[in-house]
Amino acid sequence: MNLSIETLIFLFSAMLIIGVLATKFSSRLGLPALILFLLAGMLMNGYIYFDDVKLTQLIGIMALIVILFDGGTQTKWTSIRPIIGPAGVLATLGVLLTTVITGLAAMYIFNLSLLEGMLFGAIVGSTDAAAVFSVLGNTNFKKRLTATLEAESGSNDPMAVFLTVALIELIQSPDASIWMAIGSFFLQMGLGLLLGLLFGKITVAIINNIKLDTSGLYPVLAMGAAIFTYAFTDFVGGSGLLAVYVMAVFVGNSDLTYRFTITRFNEGFAWMMQIVMFILLGLLVFPSHLVDVIWQGILLAIILMFIARPVAIFISMMFMKYNLKEKVFISWAGLKGAVPIVLGTYPIIAGVENSELIFNAVFFVVFFSALVQGGSLPWLAKKLGLDNDQDETAPSIELINLGTTESEIMKMTIVKGSPANGLSLNTLDLPKDTLIIGVTRNNKLITPTGETVIQKGDTVYVLSDKESRPKAKEALVGK
């Protein structure tokens, strides 16, 4: 179907508007937004013929870079540092075990070869960062569980990508060396980790020292650095996705100029890329083809959710200090999303036999998983008693740099344990050149005076120079 430029622009705008409205309905229904995005794409499929797999893969990879960068910059190192070990095991051994169990099931259910079955398992083996960040960002789970799931989802994509590419090579070249593939894995992960740290340091140094004409260019610079990190790392043989996530975590936990501006830009851009990516993925699927795999897809999804993922989690976490309820919850939180569907395009582009069958089955499994697991996570957390230790917003600081001055406006949230809770402003031990310029309480702005008493739940805006910022933070919200 040949469409005019005006029609394409109209359709693009419709995609964005429908996607934004879908997020409102998804939150009310308690479902991941990706469900409605995919449905929107499938509905548009009846009016638009779209089968450009390579373009979809390109946009999907770009979207994953943006999503990982956004999620990584908002990940607190203090939260994930204690669970780096468990998350790393889940991202490697957990994905491998899930791949093997699901792959064997797919081999028998779809009458595939062993390698084709393993390829299917590898494609659906990882949890999806976009889905996990989306669900966890709107719910109230235990801090350790949230940190574990976010770190796992942000770091297990490279394992799934490696297994998918390696299995495609083995299918097309049976004489390929497995030992070389194993060596390639360690090389990819090592380069991804090292280059992620390196580019993270370089990015922070550039952003903090360069003087641009407008603050709106700093988020563009940061996003460009993330895309460059992926491209360069992938070019030299490393894991680009791992490098982006590591770089993003480093940037997000550094003393960064224009943090607030960068964070807000990332969040909006990540949502836009999610909407475009999922709707395109929905367009790529023909509903009539899904009917052919519906029962096998349901069976595979059930095996993945109730057998493969739980077995992988319990074996991987056998010697870790997580109780039974936490392991059950982590088992159920293996949300699937964009990554498996994007990886599902790899066999099609490579010309692997049964690739279209694999793609359709992957799409169905992802849709079913997101619908059932994503919609029931909050309920399960409540039933297991794992949703009640974050009833307060943790102290947070967001910086707005004033550009030509040495001062910054800090935004701090007061909680029950904050040193300033219950104290009047004139009794606070603030640095000499620090001013409280605004307080918001119950969504109302209060003009502060010396007699204003700070209360739990207040958001306090503080004008301070960089040198006085640590002491001001300590006086208001603690170290």
From TrEMBL:
Pfam families: Na_H_Exchanger, TrkA_C. Gene3D superfamilies: 1.20.1530.20, Regulator of K+ conductance, C-terminal domain (3.30.70.1450). InterPro entries: Cation/H_exchanger_TM, Na+/solute_symporter_sf, RCK_C, RCK_C_sf. Residues 397-478 form the RCK C-terminal domain. GO terms for biological process: potassium ion transport; proton transmembrane transport. It is found in: Cell membrane. It comes from the Bacteria. It is a multi-pass membrane protein. SUPFAM superfamilies: TrkA C-terminal domain-like (SSF116726). GO terms for molecular function: antiporter activity; monoatomic cation transmembrane transporter activity. The keyword Nuclease does not apply. The chain crosses the membrane at residues 6-22, 29-49, 55-71, 83-111, 117-136, 178-200, 238-256, 268-287, 293-316, 328-349, 361-381. GO terms for cellular component: plasma membrane. Keywords: Antiport, Cell membrane, Ion transport, Membrane, Transmembrane, Transmembrane helix, Transport. PANTHER family: K(+)_H(+) ANTIPORTER NHAP2, NA(+)/H(+) ANTIPORTER 1. This is Potassium/proton antiporter.
